[in-house]
Structure prediction request, 122 residues.
Amino acid sequence: MKHEEESITREGLKKDLEDYIDTKVDVMKLKLIEKVGTTAGGIITGVVSGLLGNYMLLFLSVAAAFGFARILDSYGLGFLCVALVYGVLLSVVLILKNKLITFPIIKILLDKFYYSKPVEEK
Prediction:
């Protein structure tokens, strides 16, 4: 009788352990799917926004160049003024690269992947 109870308990524990491992694997898969989905959505949004932003910047730059050209009575000087503005912006970005680009990206990635919110059980 005692041997049968131990067998039932062992089998029950074994089944519970297998169920626990399966559930844990399912939770890990769901977390991975969530992170991959969020990341892919962010990448797609970033690429589309970047492309549209580049087109907008291109047309605004051409309009600004023609505006400067009208003021300066020279197309060459108008486009040169716009190029100088971009040169100054490029210099500022290169000088402040770590502060403006690198550190914020590292912080975003750490927040997103390392300091993730715990899953609340209901």
User: Anything to note?
Assistant: The mean pLDDT is 87. The helical segments are 2-72, 75-95, 97-114. Residues 2-72 form the longest helix (71 residues). Residues 41 and 117 are 19 Å apart (CA to CA).
